[in-house]
User: Fold this.
Amino acid sequence: MAEISAEIPTSRRSDGLPASVLAIAWRNLWRNPRRTWLMAGSIAFAIWMLAFSFALQKGAFDVMTDNGARLWIGHAQVQHPDFEDEPLLENLIADVPRLRRSMEALDGVVTAAPRAEAAALVSAGERSFGALVVGVEAVAEAQWSGLAGAVAIGRYLDGAGQAFVGAAMARNLGISVGDELVMLGTAKEGGVAAAVAEVAGVFSTGSAALDRSLALIPIADFRAAWNLAPDEAHRLVVVVDNVGEALDTAQAAAGAAAPWRVLDWQALMPEVKQFIDLKLAGLYFLFAIIAIIITFSVVNAFLMTLFERTAEFGMLKAIGMRPGSILGQLQCEALLLWALGVVLGVTVTLGLVLWLEAVGMPMPIDPNEVMPGLNMPDRIYPSMGWGVASVACLTLLAGTQLALLVPAVRLRRLNCVEALRTQE
Assistant:
């Protein structure tokens, strides 16, 4: 009996896959265009859902973090190593002018403003209350601090011998602009620190903690009253121009600020960090559910493919094609289906995010009623997160490939004769 042999094409693409396999896999996808578009659309929707939701959340988080930091705390702070845990008057940082120059030399840093602070008894007339008296460099603070722009009555600090107090404190003490405020505390060497200032203005931030307990005076007046050296302070507040790079800047500042301690906004505003982590956890959980649903839908689609093409697979096994090779072709089809979904999902997401980056997305409610004190705007500007989009794409790639495990078991058990009879 004469032997019949056939040459199998060996032309390959640069990625190592036979060109014929990719071509056949692509044609097989369009045997049922409606199902192909439905599955690709499902993959695209999952990518859009996670990437766009994260872009929207990231835009909101960046604004919330930036506004919260610019209100009073700053994006990072240089402190004495013990000051955050023990805010004592003696836990000072020294050589502040040199340290300030080092911080302002870092890329992305807008300014670095020194502060000195101490607990004190503030009084006006017969009324007295405990307060946190903070010495600030008014010119530097006015460039970025939201507190300087939260003037309810009067004006911000513009000279020596002045005080800028919270609305609740002014109400409790019964004072207003032009009245005298007396501050008593403990000086650096253990003596009595005393300062008298005229109230230049009253601020209102919506934050009870700030409005009730904070009194600002020029840092030179504070140093004179509390016996600090001209180059000493308790904090050096660092402000950056891009909140997205604030953590990287804080890491760079840590090297330049040695031996002092550098705290980023996550350490300074832990409640904001916890809120962001909680929101992201919910988002990832929702995406995990959608990814599982889409994986099961892909399993169903390939099971339907297996039923529809049972005779074809039986013929391929009958002529000697191994089940692994047939499964490899199905994997190519799944890969192309995933690629089509990725292109659709990324294109739609990127177009929508770029558009909203320019025009902004209006908020349905006033965010300051939900999160008072953060000075949230009425529009959110999304910011594309390519890392999250990549994770979404790779997760769905794994899901589409794992979806073939169920059809693979059925394919290995497929009997050639019974499969060919299904065509009759």
About this structure: The longest strand covers residues 109-124.
